[in-house]
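quick one before i forget lol
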Amino acid sequence: MSENKDLQGAEPGTRVEDVKFVYDFTEGNKDLKDLLGGKGANLAEMTNLGLPVPPGFTITTEACKVYLDSGDEPAALRDEVSAHLDALEAQMGKKLGRPDNPLLVSVRSGAKFSMPGMMDTVLNIGLSDQSVKGLADQAGDERFAWDSYRRLIQMFGKTVLGVDGDLFEEALEKAKAAKKVTVDTELEAADLKKLVATFKKIVRKEAGRDFPQDPREQMDLAIHAVFDSWNTDRAKLYRRQERIPHDLGTAVNVCTMVFGNLGPDSGTGVAFTRDPASGHQGVYGDYLQNAQGEDVVAGIRNTVPLAELESIDKKSYDRLMQIMATLENHYKDLCDIEFTIERGRLWMLQTRVGKRTAGAAFRIATQLVDQGLIDEAEALTRVNGAQLAQLMFPRFDDEAKVAQAGRGIAASPGAAVGKAVFDSYTAVKWSRSGEKVILIRRETNPDDLDGMIAAEGILTSRGGKTSHAAVVARGMGKTCVCGAEELEVDTKRRRMTVPGGQVVEEGDIVSIDGSSGKVYLGEVPVVPSPVVEYFEGRMHPGADDADELVEAVHRMMAFADRKRRLRVRANADNAEDALRARRFGAQGIGLCRTEHMFLGDRRGLVERLILADTETDREESLKELLPLQKRDFVELFEAMDGLPVTVRLLDPPLHEFLPDITELSVRVALAESRQEPHENELRLLQAVHRLHEQNPMLGLRGVRLGLVIPGLFTMQVRAIAQAAAERKAAKADPRAEIMIPLVGTVQELELVRDEAAQVIAEVEAATGTKLKLSIGTMIELPRAALTAGQLAEAAEFFSFGTNDLTQTVWGFSRDDVEASFFTAYLEKGIFGVSPFETIDRDGVGSLVAAAARAGRATRPDLKLGVCGEHGGDPESVHFFHEVGLDYVSCSPFRIPVARLEAGRAAVRAEGSDHR
């Protein structure tokens, strides 16, 4: 491989051998995340700010890409690493792994986007049977040196050599049992020497080779292991879940080791500049004395709150507070910080913009605006529709009389109820069978990701707000309670014991509240979210915590409404849904499905229409339906007075209004066997057989119905026109739009439009009322999109029906494919997300864009909207803004999400224009 035009930081055509693959921490900055990964870019930024960062260097994501593409590292990489290592050794006055004065380094992953715990890290690189003695002399602490060595072998064995990590854990537990201690810090140097020997035997047996004693070999193998970890199953699963591209690769950070396991005056911790769960300002984080960083995030020992560091080491605490303030002001956001204290000296190991809960995101965005750190436009980029949707989920009823089993740390909010399961495999298996589950573990690790995704919520008995479970759950928006120490979790026996001795077996129902940390036995009832109550007009900004959140949401929605160009309408079929949609901020109805008006007690009238043998019978049936339809529209226009209401004429196949063929056949057979009258059932059965189609979604439906069943569409148009005339007579402002579905050719549209225009004229003449009813069509067939220029000659508006358009473009039957093979397609990475959930930009999206251009070329004032489910999907809303649609339409509950994302889309577009 000699050339790659995608190499970051290089001119097109640059040869791989001429590219710089290694950067010192002094050479980068926070804007180089594509090249240096998030961790490397931020280490460089902190170094530039003069903060205490251990010296080191970063191997770029481009080196990783070359390695993954070719199976080997770039030819120049080894020499570049050697040059930077030589400089690092000179700076530190030590040599990597030298017996008398060893330099030790960590090798850590660092992709552009944070993927907590998904990729590999190895600490204490450079330790060997010889250098461990030098480290002991250097530190004046033999126990520390052997503890560091056993950690290296354990981490290296699992991460680099693929040894089962449980084997090391079991050996460690045996060593503690033999010593009759409960935590590893109570093991002495002699115990740890024995443990090192045991660990080396495990490596030799399981890996088929000895633990490498050459420090450079350790480092090179660790670098390759980090590269390889980009493509582990758990990393790929996490990227699919978070919609992170698979082709980014990871950087590798080689950093001088600083040690938090040098005794009680040392330690490691994680700090947040604000509470990632609530967004409140204060001192938030975890600290663990005499430990290395992995101990904190792994949750293997329970930490103390960060505030306690003030009494443990006030000098380091004060310096940390200063640095935290510096970083938050510099990044203008919540920062997540990893630090180590080595014998009273503070070192910064990482910072990044911290993951936060949905509520915290809204609070923090408004707080930063108030502090003058960001403006309203930037605030909109700090929140998103998925977070707003989370805030609209129900919460537990505080008044419910349900037994509380315990309480842990509120790590990620939400109200989750499900059956207790104690391993990821069971969580996935039961979830796929339709069961809701709560994954219960002592602590989670990256191998639990499958189960965490499948579960409604996660409960751990160990760890804090910075543990693996907490960080990953917050990133996924999953309910999580951590560190519930009073709960005794026994994963082998698949049970949990609560205070008082009651046992929760696998399959028992538990409820967890990620907002309070409470754990309940049984199912807790839920009540509406305060955010939904706000949108419903039942809650107003106030002083308590719930109202504080409502205030933040209210302000962000106001920001979005001021910025957005896209209008947001509702998909609503009755006055009740229309009124709710209006309270949620809908600016009209983008889709009224008239077929829903033919169900219930009206089904019999439709059956009579279908069974009509003569024109007179058919007209009589339509005559009976007309006043019912008119009343529906009067109510709808009243609810949406002054706002547009797009009414879609009857769309589905007629067989959907008839009884099920199997059920009807049984009824006819039973009646015949009992010699009972069954003439009507027999006629219905004959009609069902007559209307049966192999593929009804591509058969007699939509505009085709209106053209082959005389009077059907004209009855509906008459009802719409009469309802509009009645509302106008009441001094109201009805704004009806008539939408013709499933059009494939302009001739269909012209025929129905002309009939509709005649009916409207008749109603105007009869009522003496001038009506302005626009007529348009639904673009839901590829041919309609491809001939949009012709259709625009006969249509005043287009509404893209992206549900059917996705089906017809892909050749998918949604009712079948989602259950049959979509799961496999998502797992194999064929889909990043279902095309029915987020619009397929390349296929369906290109047709939408082309149709919009062609339609407006014919009719510049053509109104363009979308009424498929994509209208409420955050990512799709951004696409519809980009291609110039006028509005999106979605279900009432998703209207706030669409409003917010429409504002964010406008801000993003402004940012692109400025660039």
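fyi The first strand starts at residue 22 and ends at 24.
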